[in-house]
Amino acid sequence: MVRLDGVHVRHKARSGGILHRDSVYALTEVSLEVRRGEILGLVGESGCGKSTLARVVTGLQRPTEGHVHFRGRDLWSMSPAERRGDFGSSVGVVFQDASTALNPRLSVRRILRDPLDVHRRGTREAREARVLELLDLVGLPAHTLEAMPGQLSGGQRQRVAIARALALEPELIVADEPTSALDVSVRAQILNLLVDLRERLGLGMVFISHDVQTVRYLADRIAVLYLGRVVEEGPAEQVAGRSRHPYTTALLSATPSLLERPERIVLHGPVPSATNPPPGCPFSTRCWKADDACSTGFPAGEESGDGHRWHCVHPEEPSPRVSPDR
After folding, report:
1. 324 pLDDT band (50/70/90 cuts)?
2. CA proximity to 306, closest of 248, 220, 225, 247
3. CA distances (Å), 41 to each of 33, 53, 171, in order?
4. Which of 136, 204, 213, 260 could pair with 172 as two cysteines, CB 3.0-4.6 Å apart?
5. pTM (2 decimals)?
């Protein structure tokens, strides 16, 4: 449904002087597909480019280089009216913190009606019926309509944010760490709601998180970002269960799991700067396998037959599968 080809995003930094400012390399040579009806998980540390990638996918950020295709058409060659009408109504966004994403001066009814009013969907009565339908979809009672966001709990606010993202019946939802600001018990409810909505509505979804175990539970495919580059991508079972890039292995070792107890990998070495990324593999400054070959250029992608792809000179050996009866 959405395809990114060789996308770069560079921002101007405040450092570097008046005449020549440094560039922040937010995304570098990113190529990804978001397929219809699937959940693509994006994982990585803070500052790796996940939110910038979300802005590119939703059309909020125009790439410095590269192309974004929507149903085979270049998004940025469309007229503003086409982007707003065709693309804008097909993609919904759920932001990280619902308390700042919802207007505190508007009631829930107004918040949910706004997208319908802006895009002039149906009659007044049809819009009101759609608002009630949206509340029911996300499991909120009808009396919530007259409440203000400040009168709702964190979980309820996030449900309102999800309902607003669904207002125009989009085919794709981009959820940028939608559970990070919630309590653990509420977090599970929101994740289960997203899974249920995907099944009922046939939604595609880009789910962004720094927690690889959460993404493993939710996603069909996972893409791992490090310093603006996709270093590993593939089916969730393969990336999380048989990771090949050392950075993915380190991420998995840092997150608790009831099913596995991997040895914790502590990373040493300097964290590279986004204004002056290292030559070659961006992870080479912290990788325990790095040698001179890792610094000569970004490694070409290797791929297994099932769509599992990684960029590493010295990939990890895939761990053997453990049978369920063990």
Report:
1. very low
2. 220
3. 12, 12, 16
4. 204
5. 0.89
